Amino acid sequence: MAFDLIGTDGNLVTEAKASQWLLKHAAEYGFVVRYLNGKEDKTGYMPEQWHLRYVGKEAKEIADSGLSLEEYFGFSGGDYKD
């Protein structure tokens, strides 16, 4: 499951405070921030701090590693970053 987190105002959650909270706490609930800053060459996407993916129990290990899902699981990303 993946989704874009939208605030009560109907806009994507992009503010720095909320983004930092997601990076720090999403894994506690089984989620990872899907498209991390600096991983565009691996994921094929620009950073999207509001885009979460549920991965379950592995979320903490993935988040702690600092790897993208592509790096962690060893698969190729898209080619959409441009």
From TrEMBL:
Keyword annotations of the record: Carboxypeptidase, Hydrolase, Protease
GO molecular function, one term: serine-type D-Ala-D-Ala carboxypeptidase activity
Highest rank taxon of the organism: Bacteria
Protein known as: Serine-type D-Ala-D-Ala carboxypeptidase
PANTHER family: D-ALANYL-D-ALANINE CARBOXYPEPTIDASE (PTHR34385), PEPTIDOGLYCAN L-ALANYL-D-GLUTAMATE ENDOPEPTIDASE CWLK (PTHR34385:SF1)
EC number: 3.4.16.4
Domain D-alanyl-D-alanine carboxypeptidase-like core: 12-57
Alphabetized InterPro entries for the sequence: DD-CPase-like, VanY-like_core_dom, Zn_M74/Hedgehog-like
